[in-house]
Every structure is written in C-alpha cells, then in structure tokens.
Specification:
The protein is mainly alpha-helical and about 110 residues long. It folds into two domains: about 1-60, no CATH class; about 65-110. It is built from six helices and no strands. It has helices at about 30-40, 55-60, 65-70, 75-80, 85, 95-110. The longest helix has 14 residues, at about 95-110.
Length: about 110
Amino acid sequence: MVTNNDFPIKIEAKDRRYVVCRCKAVHRDDVEYFTSLSNDISNWNQRIVPFTEQKKDIIRASRSQLDDVVLQNYQTFKEGVPCTIALQFKLFDVKEKSFQLQLKNKCQRI
C-alpha cells in the first residue's frame, strides 16, 4: 500500500507484517524511482521486517487510551493494584465493568 495519509492503518506493537517508510519529497513525482524500487527485491528477506521511526509513529497513533494508561502506570499495575485504586485510572467515557474487563485482558497479554 502506498499512501500520503499519516495514519493509514492500525498497527499493533508486536506487528511483523508491515514495512513503513517515509519517502522524501524529492521523489514525489519520480515514476522511474518507484518503478525500480518495486522491482528490486532480490536481497529482500521477508522474515526481517525493518522497524522504522515511521512505523513507531503509526504504532503510537494506533494505541488505545487504555494502552496509554497501562504504559504510563505500568510499574504500579505490575506491582499489583487494588481494584478500587485501579478504577481511578478509568477514562470518563468508559463504563466501570468494561474498563475492568479491558484492563484484565490488557494485563494478561503483557
């Protein structure tokens, strides 16, 4: 996929499928450059996916608000937090039960 969108798809933190590159403006209308780029895959190893700054940016943009809460308070959650205190991290627009389930699911995957 080629796009000029800053956030074209959602990419999870452990993704190994997408290669994200930023193209310099000098190549904007350079059809020959992109044609040769798409044809030269002779040394490409599909098991080694580069982790570029652009991919990091999309992963950050793909995170949910809950992901941000867990990342910002990771050590606190890791040490163990009573439910009453964990609920203080709940976002305003999320129901309590939904937050509890999402948090449990998130922490089990970490």
